[in-house]
């Protein structure tokens, strides 16, 4: 009999996430098989669940915050990857390598379509998954699978945005929103040497924000975040992790000259921007895309070195539907992680 595994799949747009038995897949050329130890549940998994990503095919297993161990290697995989290695797989799994964007090194903008874990192929809500070798990142021994899983997307996105923000140690940097991405963003910003300000609604997250490394806390309900940042000298960067365009717009006035608002939260409403504010201070609003497997590797290494940890709620794979609903509810503190 063929060995089987558990996999949590979606069979149609907006359909339930169902646990099924499937044959354990074999890696093809250029692919590795990973025995999954943990997989984070990310808000972007709704793109698979709800069938919102153009061309997503069903049934599909979601999950792009995967940590596990390589247990089989296909033909033509570079010798650096071998059975027994601890690895992670994130959102960006591959790109064509030959379009003009790829030739410029802008892999996020691959014109023939990037490969996305859990969308282009089955992801990590399963005991095993197949990944292209281009998607694989090394995982430091110090990080457990549960600790490392959310760093493959939430961690990677915030860390990568911060290190590419143009801010320098000692500069004021604001993290807008202290949720799944923001609670990691505050830790990264503080450990990178930025004067870190946390902005959130209400006073209840202040003790946590300070514990994570924020030196300033701004309650956007009782004060104007732009005015507060300006009073502190202006932010070199604002990392916007909220999913509200108006909340991003409300902080924009707090940018220092040459400051950048980096948009990480996939908000649906527009961000209203004053052209004059941009012109007079040469300020910018810029989107930030997660990163590739080497960026994930850098994120994990920095997190291990500087003791950045995600705060997680864990669920076993057989409670996947409940775990997904918990993430979507917004009540989770702060990331939801499936354990195999």
List descriptors:
globular; single chain; alpha/beta; 7-stranded mixed β-sheet; 17 strands; 340 residues
Q: Your description of this structure?
A:
It contains 11 helices and 17 strands. It has 340 residues and is an alpha/beta fold. Strands 3, 4, 5, 8, 9, 16 and 17 form a 7-stranded mixed beta sheet that branches. The chain has a 6-stranded parallel beta sheet with strand order 12-11-10-13-14-15, sandwiched between helices. Strands 1-2 form a two-stranded antiparallel sheet. Strand 14, helix 9 (275-281) and strand 15 (284-287) form a beta-alpha-beta unit. Helix 4 (154-163) packs across helix 5 (182-191) and helix 4 packs across helix 10 (293-306).
Task: Write down how many β-strands occur, each being a DSSP E stretch of 2 or more residues.
Answer: 17
| Residues in β-strands, percent | 25-35%
Mean pLDDT: 97
SSE ordering: EEEHEEEHEEEHHEHEHEHEHEHEHEHE
Q: Kindly name the structural category.
A: alpha/beta
Helix run count:
11
Radius of gyration: 20 Å
Largest beta sheet, briefly? 7 strands, mixed
N-end to C-end Cα span: 22 Å
Residue stretches low in confidence (pLDDT < 50, at least 5 long) are none
């Amino acid at each position: 009999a063929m060995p089987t595994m558990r996999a949590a799949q979606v069979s149609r747009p907006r359909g339930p996430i169902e646990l099924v038995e499937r044959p354990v897949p074999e890696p093809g050329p250029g692919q590795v098989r990973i025995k999954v130890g943990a997989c984070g549940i990310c808000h972007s998994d709704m793109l698979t669940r709800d069938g919102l990503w153009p061309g997503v095919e069903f049934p599909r297993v979601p999950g792009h915050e995967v940590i596990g161990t390589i247990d089989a290697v296909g033909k033509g995989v570079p010798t650096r990857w071998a059975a027994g290695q601890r690895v992670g797989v994130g959102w960006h799994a591959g790109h064509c390598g030959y379009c003009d964007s790829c030739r410029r090194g802008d892999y996020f903008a691959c014109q023939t379509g990037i490969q996305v874990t859990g969308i282009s192929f089955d992801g990590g809500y399963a005991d095993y998954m197949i990944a292209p070798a281009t998607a694989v990142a090394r995982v430091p021994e110090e990080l457990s699978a549960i600790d490392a899983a959310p760093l493959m997307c939430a961690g990677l996105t915030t860390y990568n945005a911060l290190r590419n923000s143009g801010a320098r140690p000692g500069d004021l940097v604001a993290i807008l929103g202290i949720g799944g991405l923001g609670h990691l963003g505050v830790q990264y910003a503080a450990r990178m040497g930025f004067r870190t300000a946390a902005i959130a609604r209400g006073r209840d997250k202040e003790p946590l924000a300070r514990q994570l490394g924020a030196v300033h806390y701004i309650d956007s309900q009782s004060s104007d975040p732009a005015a507060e940042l300006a009073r502190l000298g202006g932010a070199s960067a604002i990392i916007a992790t909220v999913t509200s365009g108006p909340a991003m717009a409300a902080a924009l006035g707090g940018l220092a000259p040459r400051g950048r608002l980096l948009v990480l939260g996939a908000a649906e409403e527009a961000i209203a921007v004053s052209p004059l504010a941009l012109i007079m201070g040469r300020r910018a609003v810029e989107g930030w895309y997660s990163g590739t497997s080497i960026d994930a590797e850098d994120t994990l290494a920095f997190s291990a070195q500087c003791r950045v940890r995600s705060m997680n709620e864990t669920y076993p794979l057989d409670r996947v539907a409940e775990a997904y609903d918990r993430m979507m509810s917004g009540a989770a503190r702060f990331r939801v992680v499936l354990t195999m």
